[in-house]
Amino acid sequence: MEKHRPHDTRHTCVSLLTAAKADERFIQKIVGHKGQNVTRVVYTHLEIQELIEEIDKI
To answer: How far from 24 is each of 28, 50, 53, CA to CA, in Å?
Structure first.
């Protein structure tokens, strides 16, 4: 079994909120970032399904 750290849960939370189209300012407040850029760039991860949907648009 893989080791999971509390920080992994933080990443997952932000990624799920982003996938659910939650307001970036709301997510930023929850995780305590001073700027939305950190939340957007560092803490969000594209899901495979999202990648497929974007590729299909081409």
So the answer is: 6, 18, 21
Q: What is the Cα–Cα distance from 6 to 41, expressed in whole angstroms?
A: 19
Determine the 3-state secondary structure of 20 from DSSP.
coil
Neighbours of 39 (CB within 10 A): 22
How many angstroms separate the Cα of 48 from the Cα of each of 3, 26, 30? Answer: 22, 24, 25
Does the pTM surpass 0.90? The reply is no
- pLDDT tens sequence across 6-56: 888 888 888 888 888 899 899 899 888 888 788 777 766 667 777 788 889
Q: What is the DSSP letter of 35?
A: S
Residue 28 · residue 14 · CB < 8 Å: no
